[in-house]
Amino acid sequence: MKKIILTAVVIFAASLSSQAQLVKFGIKAGLNYANQTGSDINITAANYDNEAITSYHAGLIAEITLTEGFAIQPELLYSTQGATYKNAAEEFTNKLGYLSIPVLAKFSLNKSISLDLGPQASFLLSERKNVNFKESETFEFGVVGGLTLNITKSIFVQGRYVLGLTEATQDATVKNSVVQVSAGFKF
């Protein structure tokens, strides 16, 4: 059994090295302009206005070319999201740190620009809040849409919008939404 597993690993590694042009790995980082939207943004029976926060994201990418003009790009990102809540007397910030895993279909519009669309699963890793929400949800599902501009074969910039489809808290109808601008490098 060990020989079969070892043989499979060697064959898999050899096939990856022979198709190295088809798989590129990279890193990226950038800014988030994050907000929380919903119909039930009430905190301790008082109404607050919510405002977006500026935060960050960073992580790893893999671009897997399937055909000319089409690729799949899974990513592993740390992303901070949330909002600031204000009324006449108080101000609170709800900042959530997620491990986000978008899996994007990349449609090349030309040699430099691609349209990126796909789902994203996010897992709550950290929470810094001054908001009296009962509990934040530990899993969030969303959709991603954006554009990638390849400046060179290795350097790229991206702009995208992430819309949360599931609630960010257990006691309110609040969803995350994030505009992301990032730059990265593919090896």
Write the SSE topology:
Elements: H1 2-18, E1 23-38, E2 42-43, E3 46-47, E4 49-51, E5 53-67, E6 70-86, E7 91-108, E8 113-129, E9 139-150, E10 155-164, E11 174-186
Antiparallel strand pairs: 1-5, 1-11, 2-3, 4-6, 5-6, 6-7, 7-8, 8-9, 9-10, 10-11
InterPro entries: Beta-barrel_OMP_2 (IPR025665), OMP/PagP_B-barrel (IPR011250)
Signal peptide: 1-20
Keywords: Signal
Q: Describe the largest sheet.
A: 8 strands, antiparallel, barrel
Q: What class would the helix/strand composition place it in?
A: mainly beta
Distance, first to last CA: 35 Å
* Low-pLDDT segments: none
Number of spatially distinct domains: 1
CATH architecture field: Beta Barrel
The number of distinct helices, counting runs of at least 4 residues, comes to 1
Roughly what is the average pLDDT, rounded to an integer? 84
- What's the CATH topology name? Porin
Give helix % range: under 10%
CATH class: Mainly Beta
If you had to describe this structure to a student in words, what would you say it looks like?
- The protein has 187 residues and is mainly beta.
- It has one domain: Beta Barrel (Porin).
- It has one helix and eleven strands; from the N terminus they run H-E-E-E-E-E-E-E-E-E-E-E.
- It has one helix at 2-18, and strands at 23-38, 42-43, 46-47, 49-51, 53-67, 70-86, 91-108, 113-129, 139-150, 155-164, 174-186.
- The strands form two sheets. It has an eight-stranded antiparallel β-barrel.
- The chain is globular.
